[in-house]
Amino acid sequence: MTALAEGTSTLTEDRPPEPARRPGGLKRVLQYTVLVILTILFVSPLVWMAVTSFKTQSDAIDPDPQWVPANPTTSAYDQMLGSDDTPVLGWLLNSVLAATGQALLVVATAALAAYALARMDFPGKKIIFGMIVATLFVPAVILIIPNYIFVAELAWLDSLTAVIVPGAASAFGVFFLRQFFVGLPQELEEAAYVDGAGPFRIFWSVVLPLSKPALATLAMLAFLTNWNDFLWPLYVLFSADQQTLPAGLATLQNANAVRYDLLMAGAMIAAVPVLLLYLAAQRFVIQGVSRSGLKG
Amino acid sequence: MASVDTRSAGPDTLGPAERAPAPGRRGPSRHGGRWVPYVLLAPYLLLFFAFVLAPIVYGIWVSLHIWDFTLPNKPWTGLGNYRDLFDSESVVGPDFIRAMKATAIFTILSVPLLVVIPLGVAMLMNAKFPGRNLFRAVYFAPYVLGVAVIGVLWRYILDGNIGLLNHYLGILGLPDDIAWTTSTPAAWVALVGVTVWWTLGFNAVIYLAGLQDISPELYEAAIIDGAGPWARFRNVTLPGLRPVLQFVVITTIIASANMFGQSYIITQGQPGNETRTAIMYIAETGLKNFDMGRAAAMSFVLTVCLLLLSGLVMLLFRERKPKPLKGVSA
Fold first, then answer.
1. Which ranges are annotated Low complexity under compositional bias (chain B) (predicted)?
2. Which of A82, A109, A140 is the last residue of a domain?
3. How far apart (Å, rounded) are the C-alpha atoms in residues A147 and A130?
4. How many domains does chain B have?
5. A62 and B248 in contact by Cβ < 8 A?
6. Based on the domain organization, do B302 and B200 belong to the same domain?
7. Is the distance from CB of A53 to CB of A76 less than 8 angstroms?
8. What are phi and psi of B173, to 5 degrees?
9. pLDDT tens by residue, A72-125
10. Which of A66, A152, A221, B145 is deepest in the core (most CB within 10 A)?
11. What predicted TM-score, i.e. pTM, was given to this entire model?
């Protein structure tokens, strides 16, 4: 409650033409206190994961938590990376390939479809768009069983195709990009048309360059969704070397219930690449997510 | 695949002939031949029909059969699978009801927290101050890691014997032997807590964007009218956030009702399948035991529940709007 009231008042304080500036010192201190406590709550588990990954098996289960490992070692990593049963780097590669592949597929198919729906008139348009929007509200549970049967029929089980293709039919992607295209000024496209450009050329050299932010946003969201997908890869992939990181980590846990040193090393291998990517593209990711809410 | 190739290639050859009479109207939208929009739509629609529309229809068909994936015969059973789900004498009935209950408990506990806490955090960050982007980035970080990493990590922290959480509870003089992953009220607290920790930043970022869209003039006008912080929150912030709030509520309900990874990794459904959620039971029934007819029937029951719930939320958000102007729904 105080936090809420606090928020609104700091908002008014911070704009240049403040009508009535009030002393905000105490509020600012309170605000920072809350923010720092939250930061500790968010960061310390991640630090704990990192620290534990450099412990011995017995130090990892010391009832007196060691924030600094008594016997620092990379043995957990050595074991993870050296074992054929746990090809973690292969899982990492699979995850990267699957998420990138799906993101590209989503953006390509959704952009083409969204452009047709935003700028062209044709018989069946309303029905097609209506169906796509209707499925926005259909929860994904309903697709699991029949899509598993389809994927099995297509002989895609236990291959990355199974985690790339079925999930690429993004109703959200079409909806989101259509909104964006509708909002673009039409003059440039008309000018290109007058200059003799055909529809594909207009789409490729006029519309797409103008849409980079929206396309990147969608790609980022699609990448994250696929990267975090857990249930589907867990069941459609079986061989040790075909797993994505989330599915692989789960099998790792089933096999090494209390080898926390190993589990944390595995989790680190899964976490560090995304965290680095996230650090580099942080603003971009956050902008993407915030937009998804405004347009939705 | 092949059918669409011919479909797009066929009209393609007609293109030039079609294009000839077309030119000369206004805007590019009318031009390039009648087949162009269909060509643009074809790749998407292929995926959409194959992996969204067809599965929905096919899933209904499957749910009306005794459909064991591994057996050649899949006899028709009509509504038999659905009857089994609600029959306490059947093999799956009690388990299904328990799983639906688990999903309901989790949704009821987590949605309010995930709607309210991120809003508070977003309001704390809704101003320009040093370090703001850093805080925002930190709160969002767990979401990026995905459920498997955070599940494995929290399984360790929540460990009843050597976990950090019990250790620090002990230091604070609280009970230090709580079985967070294997006993029930505690397991729900753990699952909800981890989920809040994991996705708080996601909702906060969406709220923050919504807050920044509210015109500062509205707040200034409210201050001039003598509105205190609470009045400003109720009369400016909340109405301004309505579409964003609706979005957050619906997406959070759907995400919570689809909760799978946390239970799968952290509690493994324990104790005695009490934290096995509906979707977890569906996956087990259909994809592990290959009883796909019943699993499909369960998916439909869960979907219908979710659609009703989403519809209800939309009604709630629309209800109060006769006085202000329309047009927020976009």
1. 15-26
2. A82
3. 22
4. 2
5. no
6. yes
7. yes
8. 80, 15
9. 899 889 888 887 778 888 998 999 999 999 999 999 999 999 999 999 899 999
10. B145
11. 0.83
